[in-house]
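Quick one:
INPUT:
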């Protein structure tokens, strides 16, 4: 599905750049979250991220860091250069 969204964003980029950016942002955020989860998330953060969907887990997920905080954590604990590539 991510590849389909990427192709759609590329197709509309010339005619509708704002719409293309709207399609790309969730992909970027998903990529950052995946790299952060693999390299910098704590066990508690991973538990909240992987919990089965419920009202409680949805509320707990709101306490996960945002993209800027994930990039900072990757800079400290991730592979060398990962945060620079994602910033």
């Amino acid at each position: 599905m991510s590849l389909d969204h990427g192709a759609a964003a590329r197709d509309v980029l010339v005619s509708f750049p704002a719409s293309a950016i709207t399609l790309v942002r969730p992909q970027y955020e998903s990529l950052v979250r995946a790299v952060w989860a693999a390299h910098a998330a704590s066990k508690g953060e991973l538990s909240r991220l992987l919990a089965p969907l419920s009202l409680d887990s949805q509320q707990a997920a709101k306490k996960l860091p945002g993209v800027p905080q994930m990039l900072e954590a990757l800079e400290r604990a991730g592979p060398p250069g990962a945060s620079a590539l994602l910033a």
